[in-house]
Amino acid sequence: MKLELYSADLSSQLNLAFADQGIRAGFPSPAQDYMGESIDLNHELVHHPATTFYARAVGDSMTGCGIDDGDLLVIDKSIEAQDGDIVVAFIDGEFTLKRVKTDKAANCLWLMPANDQYKPIKVTEDNNFIVWGVLTYNIKRQLRR
Predict the structure, then answer these.
(1) Which one of the listed residues 61, 101, 104, 140 is annotated catalytic?
(2) What is the pLDDT of residues 126-142, one digit of tens each?
(3) How far apart are CA 18 and CA 28, in angstroms?
(4) Beta bridge partners of 131
(5) Which end of the chain has fewer CB atoms within 10 angstroms, the N or the C?
(6) Is 61 a catalytic residue?
(7) What count of other Cβ atoms lies within 10 Å of the Cβ of residue 105?
């Protein structure tokens, strides 16, 4: 999976109406006629503005965890990756999006795809490798027209 990277622009606010009581995904509830609350997605999704970037997912190696081609990703470079996190990794000259898996027994790290058509990537001391950032949010487009 490749990425198209964009910096986060927080120079403006866009307060949108917010259904603060939630939207039921089960049985319908009475319509909420009045929504007095508002939400600013920059404030909600970006906790560290100086180190947050957006990226567009390109490819299908992470479809098994709900990340599809074209999804908008929010990535924070200030968060230290932990086992199980989905990260943007730079390995041997290329960026990729994978889940981190530590292997203490083999003294290595694995970059795990979420699609059986792709093989895990073993990371050792011989690789030129850094974790560039940790995925904090995945934004999907639902309207397909």
Answers:
(1) 61
(2) 999 999 999 999 999 88
(3) 18
(4) 89
(5) C
(6) yes
(7) 6
